Amino acid sequence: MRPTLNWLPADDPLPGTTDLEPVADALSTGGVLVLSGAGISTESGIPDYRGEGGSLSRHTPMTYQDFTADTQARRRYWARSHLGWRTFGRARPNAGHRAVAAFARHGLLTRVITQNVDGLHQGAGSEGVVELHGSLARVVCLSCGALSLRSELARRLEEANAGFEPTAAGINPDGDADLTDEQVEGFRVLPCTVCDGVLKPDVVFFGEAVPPRRVEHCRTLVREAASLLVLGSSLTVMSGLRFVRHAAQAGKPVLIVNRDPTRGDRHAVTRVALPLGTALTTLADRLGIPVDDGSTA
Asked: Of the listed 133, 217, 246, 267, which one is catalytic?
């Protein structure tokens, strides 16, 4: 069976700590592979799904099955996503993203795998980021496979839906704004400019498989790393948890920085329960690594 973004029940949590020493030791040794989740982007104004105030209590993410089978579902998605993009696309990297980039520049990291679709690691200067779930900055045609920029589609949608200015109840980690069915009624969805096919953001929806080659690439990165550092992920979906399990089975130390308990706690040597920005900048200071102040991000 191909892996999909399925929710999993929680394991017994690992008690959280504020002791950053094990993480500092791992970073100073080098060879650290980072796996990041939505929690690292909350300080950039992008909400988490499952943390404090997480959006799952009020928002059901679009599934691949609904998107591909139902024209009304696609209208609802694109109306919400178009509005959300106005906020999502303006988000800027925070201190946590900048600290990760600084660790990489100083040779402490092997690579960054992110479950996020916001591009903020790259915006902070991280190179070679593996986007496990894709990127909202790209759009793919489900018929011909053509890739295009989300910014270009946003421009076309603005022109096709002049006057579309509803007030959203909130923005979600997938860039989807909370709107009612009445608010999205009449929104015009646009086709591919190459073949008139159905357009979809180049992200892995819930119920959709992560591409197998991408999964295997990440498994290789885990095998080559000395340790795995999880940042801001609840690890509640198998797409990220599998790499934690793989690392633990291979005898690689797993370290987690996440305020709340995670699905991977049982495999970790520690879980630091601190905000990501605070934890990562403190680690950088402890290791003598300067972090950009964000003025050029």
From this structure: 133
